[in-house]
Design brief:
four-stranded mixed beta sheet; 8% strand; alpha+beta
Length: 297
């Protein structure tokens, strides 16, 4: 599989996951309408909530992520090495210059945020600046710029909103259902359907979280592949990931809300391959990058 095939495959899978997520939200809304005879009211509320929260996240999510992470915006005079490296990579890939930020943290990490390439930011830890070689830092920055170019942040905002919507709707409906709901539940002739609905309300938040994590992991593979295209040197990013995998110190201001944005899990430098990790195992990312090196070499 070529690098271009790898990118195309990940894009298709990410779109498919988002479609499944949307269908799950609509199914929950329809089920609630059926149980409580809402006449479309609950379905409308679920859709409206998703749109409103999505717009808020779309326009303000980047500012929140930067503030939570303790990122400080810099100008070229503050750190010419970092600023010019980002500038040169943007010229290579045809992106407008994002705002550049530094996070005062000894851990090696970085993330990008923003609703589109014209409203984007990139943040790098002091640990990455101090401990990565030139080609390694270039690979990390190319990875983050790939997120911007591929509109990954926009996709992840949508998925996070849908996951939150599913969890809230399922929780509220389950509580009211158990406390004695109205409507068809009391008719007594749809017991099997209502039991299925109850099970769906219980497992829906779990399914939503798993889909969210799957999209996040797919986007990391896609950004790795895109970075390899930009730098023409996959080994640079691979070496950076190896150093990240060897560190055990989590970031001081790690947050579950922004963990998926970083190039590696900010809670653990080893990016543990657990079911609920927002990142794929570093070993698998290394294997994919070095397969590209062999295929292109």
């Amino acid at each position: 599989m070529t690098t271009y095939d790898f990118i195309s495959a990940n894009k298709r899978k990410s779109v498919l996951l988002i479609i499944i997520f949307t269908v799950l939200v609509l199914m929950l809304g329809g089920l609630i309408d059926y149980v409580y005879e809402g006449g479309g009211f609950f379905l409308f509320i679920a859709g409206a909530y998703s749109i409103i929260i999505g717009l808020m996240g779309f326009y303000s999510g980047d500012k929140i992520a930067l503030a939570v992470s303790g990122a400080r915006e810099i100008k070229e005079t503050d750190n010419q090495y970092l600023y010019r490296m980002v500038q040169n990579l943007c010229l290579t890939v045809g992106l407008p210059m994002p705002k550049v930020h530094i996070i005062n943290d000894p851990a090696i990490n970085a993330f990008a945020t923003g609703r589109d390439p014209n409203h984007s930011s990139i943040a790098v830890t002091t640990g990455a600046l101090q401990r990565l070689e030139n080609e390694e830092l270039e690979g990390v920055l190319a990875h983050e710029l790939s997120h911007i170019k591929n509109y990954d942040i926009r996709v992840m905002t949508l998925v996070m909103v849908l996951a939150g919507t599913v969890a809230i709707i399922a929780d509220l409906t389950l509580r009211s259902f158990l406390w004695g709901g109205r409507g068809r539940r009391r008719e007594g002739d749809n017991g099997a359907l209502l039991i299925i609905g109850l099970v769906l309300m219980i497992i829906a938040p779990i399914v939503a979280q798993l889909i969210k994590l799957a999209v996040s992991r797919r986007r990391e593979y896609l950004a790795d592949a895109s970075a390899a295209l930009i730098t023409r040197f996959p080994e640079g990013l691979a070496r950076a990931l190896e150093k990240i995998g060897q560190q055990a110190q989590p970031m001081a201001r790690a947050s579950g809300a922004t963990a998926h944005l970083f190039i590696a899990n900010p809670f653990s430098g080893k990016a543990l391959a657990t079911l609920f990790s927002t990142h794929p195992p570093i070993e698998k990312r290394l294997a994919a990058l070095r397969h590209m090196t062999g295929a292109n070499g």
